[in-house]
Write a structure and sequence with these properties.
The chain is α/β, with parallel strands linked by helices. It has eleven helices and 14 strands. Helix 8 links the parallel strand 12 and strand 13. Bound molecules: NADP nicotinamide-adenine-dinucleotide phosphate.
Length: 348
């Protein structure tokens, strides 16, 4: 059997621009072809969980037409060798079955065997991917079932799928695993925590995790009636605000009213659309903290916007990874019957 040379970061798979020393995530086009390298993992892919901001951008650009969305996904992956949306810059993640393990893949450190069912925990925006066929599109949950293969570099992260949760549920939860794990680090006892876009999958996980700390007050903000209804049923959500996160003054006034002018100590942005930065910044107290997990966040809008209104708040970029994030996210579903039911109903 022949293999490409080992290459932990996948640099040899960068096709465009070549020779510029770019990483696969930065590259315009990467090479998903076989054989794998000595330290790579080959995965038969079953479904892609497209990043929410990315899926909504693609769906809007196709006017919600299913056939056009499928063609856009196929075209994007054929053109770039990865599912890397050039508008949002984001990807998503996948589940599949391990077909082949290169002889130098670090199995001692990352135990895995052929036939294991895994979810990748690195973004599709850097994962070599070839789609042979789209089997089904699930637009309500940003999921695409496919036939194809993907390649994981030895530096890549993955999780073996748990046997006690439906795979599609695990996929949805693992996609946003960084958000509740960062919430655990950022929220302190007694904090007032506002989650913008709180009715979505990362939102409810963050609200649950925040509420575990003593004396925390949780506020969820979302837009649609369906999301508001969903949030009102969750026992760990103290207050629900219905508002459009793109309207900063309206949001600020509602948060101010609810908190009697104190505003939130920690604001977590998990909305899946652009132009929501200022709602979050204006809802945080002076020297509070805003955590931008949303991939639709603009660094310049957030940084210049905060400066422009004299908001001395700590602005954090939403790193999708923090140690133990996958275990924590899955653990939340085991702990919370309400969330388990919500995810099982939604991500069938
Ligand atoms: P999701 O399930 O689609 O949740 C997004 C929520 O935002 C939904 O409840 C949605 O409500 C709400 N929303 C939409 N428009 C709104 C508005 N105008 N005002 C207030 N709320 C609004 O998305 P998710 O999977 O949790 O992902 C959340 C964000 O995290 C996305 O931007 C995604 O790209 C990002 N993400 C980041 C990372 C990372 O590594 N940093 C990883 C994965 C995902 P409706 O459903 O009613 O529209």
């Amino acid at each position: 059997m022949s293999f490409r040379p080992a290459d932990a970061l996948g640099l040899q798979r960068v096709l465009e621009p070549r020779g510029a020393g770019l990483l696969p995530q930065q590259a315009e086009r990467i090479d998903p072809s076989l054989p794998i390298a000595r330290d790579e993992l080959l995965i038969d892919v079953e479904c892609l969980n497209i990043d929410s901001a990315s899926f909504h951008q693609i769906s809007n650009s196709c006017a919600g037409d299913s056939a056009k969305i499928q063609q856009a996904v196929l075209d994007l992956v054929a053109r770039r060798g990865k599912h890397h949306n050039p508008v949002t810059g984001s990807g998503g993640m996948l589940i599949g079955t391990v077909r082949e393990i290169g002889p130098d893949f670090p199995v001692a450190e990352k135990p895995v065997k052929v036939g294991d069912r895994i979810a990748t925990l690195v973004s599709l925006s850097l994962t070599p991917l070839e789609i042979r066929k789209i089997r089904a599109l699930h637009p309500a949950i940003d999921r695409v079932d496919i036939e194809g293969h993907a390649i994981l570099f030895s530096s890549g992260l993955f999780a073996r799928l748990p046997s006690d949760l439906p795979e599609t549920v695990a996929l949805a939860v693992l996609d946003v695993a960084g958000a509740p794990a960062q919430t655990r680090k950022l929220v302190g006892g007694g904090d007032t925590v506002l989650v913008v876009g709180g009715g979505g999958k990362s939102g409810v996980l963050c609200l649950y995790e925040a509420k575990k700390k003593a004396g925390v007050t949780t506020i969820a903000l979302d837009y649609s009636d369906a999301a508001i209804e969903r949030l009102r049923k969750l026992p760990f959500v103290d207050h629900v605000i219905q508002a459009d996160a793109r309207k900063p003054l309206e949001v600020m006034q509602k948060v101010s009213h609810l908190t009697q002018g104190k505003m939130a100590d920690v604001v977590i942005n998990v909305a899946n659309l652009p132009e929501t930065e200022m709602s979050c910044i204006l809802s945080a107290r002076q020297r509070g903290l805003v955590y931008f997990f949303s991939m639709a966040t603009s660094f310049s809008r957030a940084a210049l916007g905060a400066e422009g209104v004299g908001a001395d708040v700590d602005l954090r970029i939403g790193n999708g990874y923090t140690e133990g994030h996958a275990d924590l996210a899955l653990q939340i579903l085991r702990e919370s019957p309400a969330l388990r039911e919500l995810f099982t109903q939604t991500y069938k």
